[in-house]
Amino acid sequence: MIRADANIARILGLLLLCLALSGCGGSSSSSGGPPPPPPPPPPTLTITDTSPLPGTLLNQSYSFTLHATNGTGGLTWSIAPVSQTALFPTGLTIDAASGVISGTVAWGGGTAGFVATVKDSSSPPRTAIKAFTVTAYSPMQSPAPQSFTVSEYVDVGNFYVIFPKGGVPPFTYTITGGTFPSGLRIDGNGMLRGSAVARGQFAATLTIQDSFTPPEVVPAQVTISVLTPNLSLASSLPQTIPLNRPFSGRLVAVGGVPPYHFTLSSGSVPPGLSSIDPSAGTISGTPSTLGNSFFSVNVTDSNTPPSTTANNYSINVVNPLGRNDTVSTATPVGNGSFQASISPYIDPPGTAPLPGDNDYYKIVSVSGATVHVQTQAVGLFTGNLLDTVMEIVDGNGARLTTCRQPGVTSSTFNSSCINDDIGGTPYSFDSALDFQVPGAPSTTTTFYVHVLDWRGDARPDMIYNLSVNGVNPPLSIQATLFPGTRGVNYSVQLTASNATGNVAWSLAGGNLPAGLTLNTSGLISGQPTADGLSSFMVQATDSSTPPQVASAQESIQIVEPVKITSPAAWPDACVNQPYTFTLQYSGGLAPYSLGFSSLNWPLLYNSTPTFSGTPNQTGAFQGTVTVTDAARYTASQNVTLTVKSCP
Q1: CATH among 2.60.40.10, 3.20.20.10, 3.40.30.10, 1.10.150.130 for 563-644
Q2: How far apart are the C-alpha atoms of 239 and 320, rounded to whole Å?
Q3: What is the pLDDT of residues 339-384, one digit of tens each?
């Protein structure tokens, strides 16, 4: 019995020891299990204010509170210089406990910087650092009365600024008296914006408020003269219009004083169009003849005295693209990939002798080239696949016979030029052909790719790709001929593409402007001797055997030199008084571009003939004005302006 009690006592002792050691074997939470994950790090201590800080005024008290987030316990603030050489905001201090920066400017004004540091009460303490700047301004004062001259309906851009002296930006502008031109406004930078929509002189009182606390407020006096803008004719007519299609266009005059009067001064509008309506400036009718028409138009306004200006126009009457379901309306293509749908749309298919669903494409190539043409149905997963048949025909629609079927590697091209399915399987919707361009060497051949619908159920949503490669383009002429100036040297080099060897140039019809010649290298040069428009045909011949020949219809307009007609000595100006002078010039060809240079010119120049502004100093000033026209001729004039003190 005693032995049993001793065993029980020993077992109880082991049990107590096991419990004291946090469990006895096997438990997942015992000392044999994985350690618990570490706690997440605390969020980062951060200064939340942004630089720059609000500005301040000289000799005025300043106060701003810095803020921080994610701190533990109380915060401790301090500020220090950015560097030994950087300007420090002397006179400002920071309260270590609250983060309040306060004091009075003692660094003489301008922008100063400092580094702010904050520490929290964690152990060990965490720190955040951030750099700031603050600017001290002079007290705000009213700007001197200002006068501006602008043109009606012309955007004033960035040229006119109303800015106070001193003050803490940004500023707020309010019109509190007088009259301001309708269409103009003042933005937060003190700049005039918009365009005035009424002529006259407008005097207004502005109230300017800055961003100091409390804000400073000062008045400003502004006078704005809105003048009639220079009269001009916009290039409002299209350069290309379709043959035998009704057309209506309108000439648009800008500036000056309406109503306007339009007259045809030279040349003629395309045949079939009416003459220009003198009051509305409209041109309408149905063009009846292919080709380019060149003409000039004068417009006169109702000013006193009236202003007159002109512009030159060209309209090319071309064949409309329209449908391409016949050889005569085929769409020209070259090497590349083109997406299309069968046109026109006929549903259900009719029983006419010719199928309704056809596309024709026109290709021009030098003979001997091997051209690969292929169609590919688009929309494999939509179920709307177009099953095409393709053939290659001549200008009469007759099928050609110099083809090779897909997959054939023979060098002989003697197959009929038609294909339904690539590979010949009934499940193929695509077609392809290799075509050897016939004809004598170095000659140009035109042929047509005819794509038609096999089933007769084509719809506009059935899209296909047409791929063309191997086309050897024929010789062609690239010419960019610009207008010329009478009595001024002229030089333009003609160029040709797709040529073999050297190219010889000649005049194939018409006449060059008097004084100009074309040499065999394609250089048009000389000194024109008479004004007018000359039309002519140039011809290029390359060194192929036999040679390729290309021709192109061209024209050159010759005009009298542009010249500045206003006096070199401008009328005197009065200091601190608005002044306007408009440069006058004649001759040349629109459009014109103006230039001006000077080291100390007292007026505003904004790339228009009108110079305006309010000179603020007396003296004699020199500058150089230039006028360049579309013929690339430049006239220049050295000008002088004397600014005097006027009673």
Answers
A1: 2.60.40.10
A2: 14
A3: 777 654 443 333 433 445 688 999 999 888 999 999 987 754 445 5
